[in-house]
Amino acid sequence: MSAKRNLLIGVGIGAVLGILFAPHKGSKTRKNIAKTGADLREGWNNLKETASETFAKSNDYIEEGVQSLSYTNASVEANWKD
Questions:
Q1: 25 — phi, psi (to 5°)?
Q2: What are the residues whose beta carbons fall under 8 Å from the beta carbon of 57, sequence distance 6 or more?
Q3: Over the stretch 20-59, which tens digit does the pLDDT of each residue have?
Q4: How far is CA 51 from CA 7, 20, 28, 48, 61, in A?
Q5: What percent of the chain has pLDDT over 70?
Q6: Is residue 22 within 8 Å of 29, Cβ to Cβ?
Q7: Residue 24 contacts residue 32 (beta carbons within 8 Å)
Q8: What mean pLDDT is predicted for residues 57-79?
Q9: Residue 61: HSE in the Cβ half-sphere, 13 Å Cα cutoff
């Protein structure tokens, strides 16, 4: 637990020092951070949408496969009984 805590403290100190010694004014840095956050949010939403669409398509493929197997099974059973 101590190693995780030290890592988080190190990351926090690094972030603060990075902002303090940034080559831009604070207002520009804050705008860049806000823009990056907005870009990440948009990317996350796109990822969620793509994953949702892919999941829906895979469900459709699975349903089609199950139906195809059902028809094949019924056909085999019908031929087997003959």
A1: -65, 160
A2: none
A3: 787 778 788 789 889 999 999 999 999 999 999 998 888 8
A4: 32, 38, 34, 5, 15
A5: 88
A6: yes
A7: yes
A8: 78
A9: 6
